[in-house]
Amino acid sequence: MIGLKDDETRLLPLMLAPAVSYIALLIGFPFVLSIAYSMTNISVGTTELKFVGLDNFISVVGSQTFWVALKNTCIITLVSQVFVVGLGNVLAGLLMADFTGKWWVRLLILLPWVAPISLGSIGWLWIFDSIYSVINWTARAIGLLGPFDWPIWLGQPDLAMASIIIVNVWRLLPLATVIILAGLSSIPQDIHDAAHVDGAGFWRHHFEITMPLVLPITLIAVLFGIVFTFTDMIVVFVLTRGGPYDTTQVLASWAFFTGIQGGDLAEGAAISLFLFPVLVAVAILFLGVARRTEVT
Known about the structure:
The protein is mostly helical. The chain is built from 13 helices and no strands.
């Protein structure tokens, strides 16, 4: 008689059941609830629900703030990922070398990812402070700023956007570095030795051998970075709260301000649902490209 542990057809669903149940409760239920809320007039203190169809979505799309938030979300995500991938490749390459104290350097690089992003953002809030900014005082001390120059990092739209991008790069760089480092470590040493014997220089070795082999795992790092940045509201909430005048508002923060602080749960849910199709499309695209790259 075949026991349960020997019957893979029954054992596999049983082993997956806890994970599937956890995902269904943690993600599936709130997602379904958001869809239901977005099609009603629910708000804080509502006693009677009324079905309104797509009225909330039409109202959101008709708002100028929606287009500003969507543009800001895309800009922050794309620009930060360019810097994250570029710097992540540099740091991963440096960490492949043997040097004294490499373990401590790896630990320091991981700290921004391990620390809660809310605490890190509060630290950056002080760094970008309009009066006590360590950046401004240091720049003035070394002569980069004149006596009448004093950037207001979180009060000027362009500088506020740059500040949010800097914090997102600081936050996501450790994750990308670790993922790319794992990809570099998985390349067999024989390939590097063969390239060295064939006389391949640094740049040819990097662009024709290392990068193609690391590309699939790099795309996974980019996918994680896009998901984390696109859905994050903590950095904007702590640093600018969408200001000045909604110029740094993103979809996640706008959904929070509308649904939670503003009390309009229905419109807040509608705003948050605009994140879903974009992220699904990005995930399918990147996973498909990564799979084809790995096969070839």
